[in-house]
Inverse folding.
């Protein structure tokens, strides 16, 4: 008998705080994960928190103390709630006009976006909880930057091969 998975599809709109959508984050090993943390004001996060907590409640069973101890894919930070979504697979990135984003565009912190994700319950040795599995992404307001290995030079143009700094000098002493 196949048991249905404890999952729920949700959409989240927020401002990116931490972004690895163009290439995977390999800081914790290969092959890495694509991920994003979205910041949402507390007053707009209630429905999302309830939907995620429903998934967790089905996983851990009834009882407020079990829900409090469960591992959650969100964290309250001041007046905001940060939602963390991740995937082993590169998400498809769309612009606000429903066009696929060029692969060369680097999405950075501060971008505003919609993400499709799946809140998925789990029980492992570390405990029970839910994770947000990242699907497709629609960029509403793009903040673009250059990253490691990009084709653009991070240094300013220097006149006639000058070795002088373009930054103002500070007096020593």
């Amino acid at each position: 008998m196949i048991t249905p998975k404890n999952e729920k599809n949700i959409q989240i709109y927020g401002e990116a705080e931490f972004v690895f959508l163009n290439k995977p984050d390999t800081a914790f090993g290969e092959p890495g994960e694509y991920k994003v943390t979205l910041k949402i004001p507390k007053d707009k996060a209630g429905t999302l928190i309830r939907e995620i907590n429903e998934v967790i409640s089905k996983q851990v069973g009834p009882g407020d103390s079990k829900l409090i101890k469960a591992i959650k894919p969100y964290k309250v930070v001041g007046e905001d709630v940060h939602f963390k979504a991740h995937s082993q697979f590169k998400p498809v990135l769309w612009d606000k006009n429903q066009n696929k984003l060029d692969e060369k565009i680097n999405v950075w912190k501060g971008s505003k976006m919609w993400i499709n994700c799946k809140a998925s319950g789990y029980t492992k040795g570390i405990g029970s909880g839910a994770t947000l599995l990242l699907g497709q992404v629609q960029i509403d307001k793009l903040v673009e930057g250059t990253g490691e290995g990009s084709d653009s030079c991070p240094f300013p143009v220097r006149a006639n091969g000058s070795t002088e700094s373009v930054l103002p000098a500070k007096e020593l002493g």
